[in-house]
Amino acid sequence: MSEPPVTVMVVDDHPMWRDGVARDLNERGFDVRATASDAGSALRIAQAVTPDVVLMDLNLGDTSGVQATLQITQEIPGTRVLVLSASGEHADVLEAVKAGASGYLVKSASAEELVDAVRRTAAGDAVFTAGLAGLVLGEYRRMAITPDSEHQAPQLTERETEVLRLVAKGMTARQIANKLVISHRTVENHVQSTLRKLQLHNRVELARYAIEHGLDQDGDPDTEEP
């Protein structure tokens, strides 16, 4: 039995671009449930159709896609936002990520890159146009706050820490499984266990936690199975 298609909503104030992206995604097997042209209607419509992924432009005329991103990620927990913008400015990227976006793609990306990014975003990965991931990692490192010594951090197993480190480096669950020579299911079990211990909700938050604690800077873990 095949898995249901990824559901998508496209938010862009340019009708031709918006409709073209929606059509292309439908032709690639996605279920484009709705489109919107401004921040206000984006939240309202997203609440009604609850898509897996919202493709969000940042420049929505008089309104900002950053505010729409913040509202959608706060009010619709099961929906992830992937920014698709003409801007590759560092300030725009960081604003979007801080508002809760799961990833950032520039509009010069190919159709294949867009399709892959939407699928990976729906699966919980953090997806960025080449060159932008390093920017986000560096910013989260800069903003990292030294943990309060009075509040002891949750204890993770060695394997959970290894998996967390690779999540921070942007690897998918399948890539982590191949690197550590363990099953895909085992990786998912470690991810879910770590999420519970850290009281986080998804892999994007998990990656942020790892980055803030410097785990993405460590050397590659070994491949020995516990």
UniProtKB/TrEMBL annotation:
SMART domains: HTH_LUXR (SM00421), REC (SM00448). This is Response regulator transcription factor. The lineage of its organism: Bacteria, Bacillati, Actinomycetota, Actinomycetes, Pseudonocardiales. Transmembrane segments: none annotated. Residues 7-122 form the Response regulatory domain. Pfam families: GerE, Response_reg. Keywords: DNA-binding, Phosphoprotein. The modification 4-aspartylphosphate is found at residue 57. Residues 149-214 form the HTH luxR-type domain. InterPro entries: CheY-like_superfamily, NreC/VraR/RcsB-like_REC, Sig_transdc_resp-reg_receiver, Tscrpt_reg_LuxR_C, WalR-like. It comes from the Bacteria. The keyword Phosphoprotein applies. PANTHER family: TWO-COMPONENT RESPONSE REGULATOR.
